[in-house]
């Protein structure tokens, strides 16, 4: 338990318990300030592994930790569950959706990002599932597993659509989901079904740009990623621009792909808090911040992580939406606040690029750090070490490591549960949907043993 | 992979993938029959540990295994996800809710039980949460954790109701939930909150009968259980008959208990399938079965486990709803079917009582097997060994054991996630509910450090 500050010490309010907000909170443990962290969820989520929950490899509790239990020993900090409705920078007040108002001396906006359908929220989000929250991941898990269950019970002509999975977006999330889904079908579910052959499932990864991992990775690694995905049987389609998504599947300019399950990994947008009046915005919609991560004319208000657009001195583009950016900014603003409290001058924020990585599957990954470029087994081993290392909490590290060892050795996955109310009622709906008359589905070869 | 039977081999249909259905299916692996198991869920649930999920000690995947993956190597078995609507014993057909019909030569009805509110389903189930499914457990977990979150943000006078937890029913489930909830408040959540003191939470266990664990346990062990609960701070009220449950709490004949969270562990009833016309029913509503677990005049139809009422030769009461009864009956009917297929005579089913146990908390349990009666640490150790042993699947055993070791050593729990859509919106609803004018709640003492 760290020492308690004076009752009159300044109050730091942090919105969001992600990587940035949590890093700031922990770094403020030894500063003479009171800290309140507000989040809509009670848990910090290790987003980089969320796709593993969606693909039935890990349980939610393995990658999510109650924020309270992370900061339980920090005497100057409290955690509140609540949703922020607005920020009044003139009166230094934050209002919650339930009407509560909280005053602050320093404010750190670290509310993160959410899925963006580029203006098609209403019609596309019904069919293409985003992947930003634990609930999202559980819904994808449920839908993917239900598609196999429905295919097992469906007549042969309906199986092709049920066993087609489209992932839209070839960034790290899309690549990771596609690889894990292909492995699920090829290795994990094999032997489990009787009427269908899970390895005949199609996994199609669509990317509008000319290469995968176009943001941040070198072109050679993009090609490596594509070839590693191809080894797993993923159909990678580059330059594939989605024009429409509906109950039949995904429609491109020159083709339509019938699919019962569609995952959307194509874009994120800042938390709606960034749209509050009076806050300066970057062209990307994120909050424009100064060299010290503060909002212009408000040195006591900071924005960090995915909600902020920080332009390094000599760069045209803001820093990318990475955990390492958010963590470094969180630690920096904690130090900037400590400097202000102690009447010292703030330094400029400086981002240290630690590199980026994406995993494609068992023993397959790409990694780029400075001039170092790796792919394959070594990149994958480094990916495993880094991700376990950064998982907060001893318990989770052990649980994840064990889950992975077990999956690696046995090619099985431990979290293949279909939950949610009355899942079985979704089956007829999934199976009944008629194939489009224009593109009749071909009966897939099957090894049906006996129809009851 | 076991050998495949001839295509014309008899077809055994099993309804339900619980302890009974699964035991029957596995025992039929070497019989010359085809087996189809139908369940509404894709997973077998280890019910005896479900309360651990509700109390944030274990993740759902630690106690639930996909039925498919359990029987993946059994070549004569297939698993279908679906909900049974009815049984036509004359035409030997089972119909599913989606209209599918499945023929059978032998039928095993092992559909289990569900929560019963004794005719108050409509008005009580809204306020008192049952505990039979993974979804039930996650909802209880969410509500319990949200109650603490709401209390942290609520004004002092509203905290007492939020921190009052009532468990109705003093059978094994009620005892286990009460003990685990008391430990959660006293040991796990301590240090996590700032405005409230979690150990001041009240945990009240209501039992209508004159003693706890009245079904099956010796009177001495009932007293031991009550005193072990009292050590943990649980208020045990015997002879407490619930007259009404509403948004304020639980109303007894002579008292009312204000509580925001109520868990219902007072009763179960057989799956509604037992009400199908033409099936003989016992006074308990369960299916009346013959000495060989079959339905009268239908030697090809069996009912086992919680849905069946089996009367041992010299007993007035049917066998209790225990996993060991279901497992033994499952194995027995598999042998009875094998006997019929091979034109051998069936023997009468004989139940071997292996004893019963209930855990109360860390190092606290009661156990009764024949003339052996144990309580305290030794009973608890045996409870741990037995439960891990019976958990199906190597992975789960390791995961559960590790979770327990970790919880035992650190008094922390790893699955304290509040999930489900927009949980934070429940907070104001939880907090706003006015206390009853007739019994004003007393402001609890607090250690509020700073109001923001």
Structural notes for this entry:
2 copies of one chain form a homodimer. The first copy, chain A, has 452 residues and is an alpha/beta fold. Chain A has helices at 19-27, 50-54, 60-63, 67-70, 121-124, 134-153, 156-162, 172-188, 219-231, 323-341, 377-390, 394-410, 426-432, and strands spanning 11-15, 34-39, 43-45, 64-66, 77-81, 84-88, 93-96, 101-103, 106-109, 113-115, 128-129, 164-168, 202-207, 235-238, 242-246, 249-252, 256-258, 261-264, 268-270, 287-288, 294-295, 298-303, 308-309, 356-361, 364-369, 372-375. In chain A, the strands form 8 sheets. Chain A has a 6-stranded mixed β-sheet, with helices on one face. In chain A, strand 21 (294-295) and strand 22 (298-303) form a beta hairpin. In chain A, helix 6 packs antiparallel against helix 7 and helix 6 packs across helix 13. The longest helix of chain A is centred in the N-terminal third of the chain and has 20 residues, at 134-153. Chain A is globular. Residues 437-452 of chain A have low confidence and may be disordered. The interface between A and B is large, with 72 and 71 residues.
Per-chain topology:
2 copies of one chain form a homodimer.
Chain A (H helix, E strand, L loop, with lengths): L10 E5 L3 H9 L6 E6 L3 E3 L4 H5 L5 H4 E3 H4 L6 E5 L2 E5 L4 E4 L4 E3 L2 E4 L3 E3 L5 H4 L3 E2 L4 H20 L2 H7 L1 E5 L3 H17 L13 E6 L11 H13 L3 E4 L3 E5 L2 E4 L3 E3 L2 E4 L3 E3 L16 E2 L5 E2 L2 E6 L4 E2 L13 H19 L14 E6 L2 E6 L2 E4 L1 H14 L3 H17 L15 H7 L20
Parallel strand pairs in A: 1-2, 1-9, 2-5, 9-22, 11-18, 12-13, 12-18, 13-14, 20-23
Antiparallel strand pairs in A: 3-4, 6-7, 7-8, 10-19, 15-16, 16-17, 21-22, 24-25, 25-26
